[in-house]
């Protein structure tokens, strides 16, 4: 039997920009079998991200900017006609004509034609070298011209104008910004904020002209832009001009078919985004919204797109206006503006914090009733995420100045009311976040998954973290002591698991005792445990994948991606031949050399490809790895001792050499430094080391738990007047006990400081065997010394291990071209900057 | 029989860059194509990823030397310089929105595949 089906309804969308694409997505959230959708696009490519257009100059490709996957169109049967704009609408017949001469019928027409850049009609505005900044084609044209230009000017100092100025500057052009208003970003920031913004931008070398109009643009002999004349009489030599002086709604199609438009342009629509014709809707920058405004931001455009889609499918939803708060970084300067930034509300008052030395300006606009109405932040927008949600909430619970002052020590973050919106992308309130924690979410990722908060622009992530942590603490949930998200065990517990179960592979440990794939915290920590216990070569098998890059290449990564090389010089004692060898190698490979704090020589500037050749020569000359790259014993520093020093009472160099050779290659939770002084004058600074030995007339005093660095700590005297054998046995046990029980990246100083029972307990364990583990600790050290081999000699002997030392897997022998050096004080130093860059954030 | 080869799509063409066996599970290598540096990774399950080798936070071409792992369900590489995590599938930085130069902290990504049998 024949089943009558209604013919599909025709929906035609004119314009495939960000808003048009958002409309298609919202419309197709569920299958729409009853509709046939056609899209007419003016440009030759599908919708792309115009908000991040400027990132195209720093390498983001067309494909990456694209917002419309080809599968999307195919999946929903959307007919996208690229390069075929609409030219006329016949409302009576419900048809439209395209530039290709086709006539399309529609049941519903959606106009999303966006806006066009306003180009002031000054003489010369259409010369070669003049551009607008709207499409990828515009950017390509600017880039092509910028390649042969020296100086560029941007007409317009608003948001987009400053973006364009950043692009010109990054292309290596001297850059001017010409703004008609008395300040930059006049729409978003106030006078003081504008002044600070101007100063920061001028510090970057951009010349700013405010209160200046463009009078004329003049051509050179080649018929292209040569100079421009400003209304204040300034004449600028420029060979490239970008107009960014605002946009105008593209409402011509609607005007031509008699649809009403606003006084300043924009197709008039109601709250359901419908025009005067019930079959035609308009969304985005081409429309004048129900509140009489034409919005030039993407978020309101998206909201209109969603409204129109819902109206067509469910007959619901309305758009009556939007928040135009913005937070962005322009030319490296943070700027945010929210709510009533200019204090236009009747009775509004300002609270201002200005610190031009630090480059920070903050203003809050507060209503007469104490409610927060809006604000401006320049130079530091960290508070945006906490301030914006307070907009139009209850009167502020704290004096507004407390919200602005940089040092709020003790005050804590501003208390947010429950209804405050934490994530504005997904409209998630503080109450929703609290509920998620109450329902069992115990981490930020879990809260994100169940509320969608923080999964849009991400600007609320920090606030979300604070809220979730506070909420967890309030519920008495103790923070996990686990190593990281993949292991709930501490390092010491994992050490015991590895030891007791005899585990030799990370895969087995994470599969049996952890979750996920690991990270930069647990992988090196477990590599260290495996190395401490198993003594295999750290570049073999699965262990290789766990190592930090330093351990992976047995060298220390430095600025720019080159490596430094440190051969072991036990006790700081070196022969003239050894010095000459190091000098020759450094000279032949063009390395920078420096004497380290640990009495050895560091050679900088080696490329990955150089490392095996450098080490071939070092190993041939009798040098070994110094483990400068590892969490392992570094050096045992020494003074010259009784052999030469007239005050010395013992052979400190001899003992230092013996200790360094005994513990070399010993992997630990953190690096280990040591020293031996030949008398109480303490020239080797042994009391600032993990373990330090000071000679006495009767023997040796042993100090432990000392530290230099950020948290200096004097070592504690563990035992006095030890003979050499007892001294070494005690150090053996001290190191092994530390390796076994310390946390990840815990130096001996905090470890000793937190030991229950303190130094007395340590003495009991190490010297009186109160835990009955000394035999085991001694055995572990015996295994370490017996199994020691030089990692570099072993690497050079094995072609498989050597294979990783190439810069490029598909071009062995080609050195990394990005590693470059420049001379300084007779040696090399890294070149800091590759290519043009914007300001580095403080 | 030759080992499987890995191919990267660069500027519209598939390029064979190395053998599958050249990759260590959980570790990366760097690839040079037309002067462009690309970091290529293989995870424990055998999945392949290709992202730009330049670390936007240090301006050094070193991401191929980072440690890989996971954050939640997201496969990531950690910069060996300052340890930011990047989503290997999309190139997005999970720790910071923008690089020190103000550009979005996002790596370029390249399509990568095991060479289909027909190309051998």
UniProtKB/TrEMBL annotation, chain A:
Pathway: Nitrogen metabolism; nitrate reduction (assimilation). One of its GO terms (biological process) is nitrate assimilation. CDD domains: NirB_Fer2_BFD-like_2. Its EC number is 1.8.7.1. Siroheme binds at residue 683. Residues 630-766 form the Nitrite/sulphite reductase 4Fe-4S domain. GO terms for molecular function: 2 iron, 2 sulfur cluster binding; 4 iron, 4 sulfur cluster binding; flavin adenine dinucleotide binding; heme binding; metal ion binding; NADP binding; nitrite reductase activity; sulfite reductase (ferredoxin) activity. This is assimilatory sulfite reductase (ferredoxin). It comes from Streptomyces griseofuscus.
TrEMBL record, chain B:
GO terms for biological process: nitrate assimilation. InterPro entries: NirD (IPR017881), Rieske-like_NirD (IPR012748), Rieske_2Fe-2S (IPR017941), Rieske_2Fe-2S_sf (IPR036922). Keywords: 2Fe-2S, Iron, Iron-sulfur, Metal-binding, Nitrate assimilation, Oxidoreductase. This is Nitrite reductase (NAD(P)H) small subunit. Residues 15-113 form the Rieske domain. It comes from the Bacteria. One of its GO terms (molecular function) is nitrite reductase [NAD(P)H] activity. It comes from Streptomyces griseofuscus.
